[in-house]
Amino acid sequence: MNSMPSPSELPAALAQKTSALLDVIRGYGRCAIAYSGGVDSAVVAKAAVLALDGDCVAITGSSHSLAQGELEQAAETARLIGIPHEVIYTDEFSNSDYVRNAPDRCFHCKTELYSQLDRIAPGLNVSVILNGANTDDLGDYRPGLQAAADFKVRSPLADCGFDKADVRALAEHWQLPVWDKPATPCLSSRVAYGQAVTPERLRMIDNAERLLRSNGFAICRVRYHEGDLARIEVQTDDLPRLLSEPLNMTVRQALLESGFRFVTVDLGGFRSGSLNAAIGQGEPKGQFVPVDSIGMPNHTETE
């Protein structure tokens, strides 16, 4: 991430949306934010602090699907925002429908999260739960949105017309340290549909992505496919460096030692939501180069 920006004036259209956002949240009264620590939920948390004079709470769900370091960063961002922060431990892995990893996996994950939030809400004197969904999410394949609807979770960013660019611009204006943080969906989203989601496979993915980030690949994904095959996605401009020696051999050896049996690089580069192509949902973003000719599964998934 870049250094924290200096405050700037908001464009008129975004200022109007921001005013509407604060008004909407003010109308909810005391609320809880389903808070991952990413830019979307951080903006909702900051808006809630401003609208409700701090009469709100951020709650993060933690499980094997959360990448290492994410919980600590979420806690630090909450501290900077000035919102009380609580952590709950979710048990989606006890649900066979989640583990079997059909395309509705996210529905079962969010159902577990929202059911726990719904259960503890009365004790926190909270009647409304908010999430960070924005209008861009509404046009993607997001089965978790159905779970939100089932539990009457509100999406104030989407309701006020915020797209992802608006969210980042407002986060920058508010000097939130995650304003330019790359999207960090749960580790389970890296597992190809139909392959069971297990803590061991998520550990392999997490270790592989941390290695790539430590070598300067800020935007990357390691997708898990049948047969313990790793499909690495980095930005197309980064492909020559990844494929150069000795880095290529270093990455390959580390992934093999982590538990992968095969290590491949996707010549199409990073594409958010690429596994969804396998089920005919979503539009893979970024340059696309077919890779079937080198034996790579042409699957993808949600960011």
Write up what this structure looks like:
With 303 residues, the protein is of the alpha/beta class. The protein has two domains: 162 residues, HUPs (Rossmann fold); 108 residues, GMP Synthetase, Chain A, domain 3. The strands form two sheets. A four-stranded parallel β-sheet has the order 3-2-1-4, sandwiched between helices. A three-stranded mixed β-sheet has the order 5-6-7. α3 links the parallel β2 and β3. α2 packs across α9.
Structural descriptors:
disordered N terminus; globular; alpha/beta; 2 domains; disordered C terminus; Rossmann fold; 7 strands; GMP Synthetase, Chain A, domain 3; 40% helix; four-stranded parallel β-sheet; 303 residues
Quick take:
It contains 12 helices and 7 strands. With 303 residues, it is α/β, with parallel strands linked by helices. The strands form 2 sheets. Strands 3-2-1-4 form a 4-stranded parallel beta sheet, with helices on both faces. A 3-stranded mixed beta sheet has the order 5-6-7.
What kind of sheet is the major sheet? 4 strands, parallel
- Helix-strand topology string: HEHEHEHHEHHHHHEEHHE
Tell me, what is the CATH class of the largest domain?
Alpha Beta
Strand content: 5-15%
How many distinct beta strands? 7
Report the uncertain regions.
Answer: 1-6, 282-303
What is the name of the CATH topology of the largest domain?
A: Rossmann fold
What is the strand and helix layout of this fold?
Blueprint: H1 12-28, E1 31-34, H2 39-52, E2 56-62, H3 70-81, E3 85-89, H4 96-99, H5 105-120, E4 128-130, H6 135-138, H7 144-150, H8 156-159, H9 164-173, H10 199-214, E5 220-225, E6 229-234, H11 239-243, H12 247-258, E7 262-265
Parallel strand pairs: 1-2, 1-4, 2-3, 6-7
Antiparallel strand pairs: 5-6
Helix pairs in contact: 1-2, 2-9, 5-7, 10-12
